[in-house]
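step: validate -> pass
step: tokenize input -> pass
step: predict -> running
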Amino acid sequence: MPPGKRELARIERRLITMLTEACETAKGEIKGFTWLTHTVDLNTLAETLKVIWVFETLADRKLAQVDAKARIFELTAIALNEAYIDLSLLDRNVRFDSEEECQRIHSGDWQKRLAKGY
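step: predict -> pass
step: emit ->
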């Protein structure tokens, strides 16, 4: 039986709380990192979860993809585990983005950018 609305709301709250902790940790460790967000359809979590790590500049994003990718995956995995979400992370679940790219392509409109799947 699929989870009900209350259980899905609990999952979402736990996920937000744990991703917030990962975000705060990363701010002190990863150069140029500013914030993170996620998109998900909780009814198909494994297929739809995307955690988007946002950096100030394109250069910061590219550097993180080389130097901090393992740490970002580790922080994401810890957050999911602490939110009681059993998911083997894949590259499709973790995305890297930047304020600079959003400003250039979507005039700083993150809702529009996230809706397009960047």
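step: describe -> Residues 5-29 form the longest helix (25 residues).
step: cleanup -> pass
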